[in-house]
């Protein structure tokens, strides 16, 4: 089997199964594990997959700026926001992580919502500024320009003293085996504390983020209570997420 054919088949398996194991491919195709590892290294260097010890996972899309992400998948993000707002109840303390999808969520929260919203996103706090019955707490810290959020020890220390009813976690990549991951280590620390500081965790996840991995692990997928994703036929199987006890919306 030619290298180009092997690599094409590897991508097909990743799309269908969500991962590849080098040893299994070497047996299946009667080639050495070194050959498969070379294929995976080369494909990783081109951003086609994310190589890990013993195999590979699908790679997430290249990191975009906040402004670029705001203009991406607008209809899908609005759809997710409309679904997510239905699990919000008056009187709750909400923790809303900064993300472009969560910004759409903030814009859908009814003006009459009575409760407290804590966020590390200046954009989300501004979107909620006209809600008369909503107390808004903006977490202060170092402003991370790539994602328009505050990060650092100051943010984490404040979060340690909070117990939110529901957290909407910003998710970059989600994989049932690898976990929740993102491309920036600064944000991973804040997200981990957000999970610890909340009773329930929800994530609004567009189709392109499902079954992919990025550079820095936030935690296992089982940390999620709600996975809010798009309607219609998905190329990725959601059974593994449901088996982890996550409610799919």
Keywords for this structure?
NagB/RpiA_transferase-like, elongated, 249 residues, alpha/beta, 2 domains, repressor, Arc Repressor Mutant, subunit A, 7-stranded parallel sheet, 3-stranded antiparallel sheet, Lactose phosphotransferase system repressor
Overview of the structural elements:
One of its GO terms (molecular function) is DNA binding. This is Lactose phosphotransferase system repressor. Repressor of the lactose catabolism operon. Galactose-6-phosphate is the inducer. Keywords: DNA-binding, Repressor, Transcription, Transcription regulation. The structure is a single chain. The chain has helices spanning 3-17, 22-29, 33-45, 66-70, 74-84, 100-108, 122-127, 153-159, 185-196, 239-243; strands at 20-21, 49-52, 55-58, 93-96, 115-119, 134-138, 142-144, 149-151, 164-169, 173-175, 179-182, 198-204, 216-219, 226-228, 247-248. The chain is an alpha/beta fold. It has 2 domains: 3-58, Arc Repressor Mutant, subunit A; 66-248, 3-Layer(aba) Sandwich (Rossmann fold). The strands form 4 sheets. It has a 7-stranded parallel β-sheet, sandwiched between helices. A 3-stranded antiparallel β-sheet has the order 1-3-2. The longest helix has 15 residues, at 3-17. The protein is elongated, with a radius of gyration of 19 Å.
């Amino acid at each position: 089997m030619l290298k180009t054919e092997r690599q094409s088949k590897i991508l097909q398996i990743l799309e269908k199964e969500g991962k590849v194991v080098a040893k299994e491919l070497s047996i299946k195709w009667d080639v050495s594990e070194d050959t498969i590892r070379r294929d995976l290294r080369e494909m990783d260097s081109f951003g086609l997959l994310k190589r890990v010890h013993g195999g590979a996972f699908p790679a997430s899309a290249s990191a975009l700026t906040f402004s670029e992400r705001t203009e991406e998948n607008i209809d899908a993000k609005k759809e997710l926001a409309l679904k997510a707002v239905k699990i919000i109840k008056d009187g709750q303390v909400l923790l809303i992580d900064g993300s472009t999808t969560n910004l759409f969520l903030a814009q859908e929260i009814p003006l009459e919502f009575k409760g407290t919203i804590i966020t590390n996103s200046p954009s989300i706090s501004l979107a909620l500024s006209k809600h008369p019955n909503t107390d808004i707490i903006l977490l202060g810290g170092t402003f991370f320009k790539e994602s328009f959020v505050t990060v650092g020890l100051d943010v984490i220390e404040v979060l340690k003293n909070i117990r939110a009813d529901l957290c909407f976690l910003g998710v970059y990549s989600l994989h049932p085996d690898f976990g929740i991951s993102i491309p920036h280590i600064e944000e991973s620390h804040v997200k981990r504390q957000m999970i610890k500081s909340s009773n329930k965790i929800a994530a609004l996840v567009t189709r392109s983020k499902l079954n992919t991995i990025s550079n820095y692990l936030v935690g296992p997928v089982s940390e999620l209570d709600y996975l809010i994703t798009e309607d219609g036929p998905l190329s990725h199987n959601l059974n593994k997420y449901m088996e982890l006890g996550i409610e799919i919306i």
